[in-house]
Amino acid sequence: MISQRHINVQNELERRFLNGLSCEWDLAWQELNTAYQTALHKPLFSLQDMTGKWGYWSGEKREICLSRHFVTNHSWAAVREVLLHEMAHQFAEEIIGANGEPPHGPSFKKACYLLRANPKASGKYPPLDERILHDSSSREDKILIRVKKLMALAQSKNQHEAEAAMAKAYQLIKKYNIDLIENERNRDFVSIFVGKPALRHFREHYHLSSLLQDFYFVYGIWVPAYVMDKGKRGSVLEITGTVQNVRIAGYVHDFVRHFIDSQWREYNKDKSLNRYRKTDFAVGIIGGFRSKLELQNEKKIKGKYEIVKTDDPQLKKYTAYKYPRASSVRAKTLRNDENVLIDGIRIGTELVISKGIEEKERKRKLLLRIKNS
Fold first, then answer.
1. What are phi and psi of 191, to 5 degrees?
2. pTM here?
3. 221 and 300 part of one domain
4. Quick one: 128 and 190 in the same domain?
5. pLDDT category, 9, cuts 50, 70, 90?
6. CB neighbours of residue 89 within 10 Å
7. Residue 51 gets which letter from DSSP?
8. Predicted confidence band at 158 (pLDDT cuts at 50, 70, 90)?
């Protein structure tokens, strides 16, 4: 028999989900021009038990409904993707007037373009998190398998062997992407959340997002997102790139975060330093690791060694469309403990990205979980 407490917990959880859907609808609405904002009004939101589809838009009820099972068993980024798809149906019907057209006709496609929505995100189309983790025999996933094998070698207790394996994995990633860019091969891009939506993020989180963007062929931006456990709007890091690159960058993000936490526990066990000192330590680790990657990106130019960065024009074009109002914010300069920072830098220079993180949370999946073949 289901207890009243269990029912109350479920009701509260669903209330937060519905509030989250409302917040995400608002965020998408804010990206529209003033004329569309004036004409488009917020619908009702509901969760229902359904099979065969992730959600639907009902013009008669003025309601966007999502599958209860889908919402509770997939990442919030996947939920948001389906919500935007259904919002595009609403837009096509109420603003463009798609009467008499097929459900996914020209008006709907125009609405998807304006809302940055995925026109495929319905029915039996795999959810975003499953598409990111999907294995295939494509050339791109074969590259990932080689990278994963090198990361396994990077677990070696011999520091020299571990460093060599990590460097080789990074060079493989870099060479593959440079070949794609130079040959102007068409690429599809996806966007995923890394880390968790939160009301506040620490300075090291921004340093880590910059590192991913500078060295792992993804574009990172902090976007508004609903914080489920707080029932409020916060923000989260969203990275955009090819499926292969977001998988690798997401893995690196999680690996570095785990590494920082484990090293801080060891470093601070006899010191009782506060959370601000952990930030100094973490920023140092990321800076030390960055210095290693910079060495791998150096190239001799006119007799001097300079860091060479490769921009992806296709990714730039895509992100300019996806984030039309993106802006840079300069972080405040805060006082730090130089000794803790220096210790972090020293430890960061020894960081080796390898295979081996374990993630126990039910909804979190490692982005490099791929089959050996």
1. -125, 135
2. 0.84
3. yes
4. no
5. low
6. 24
7. S
8. confident
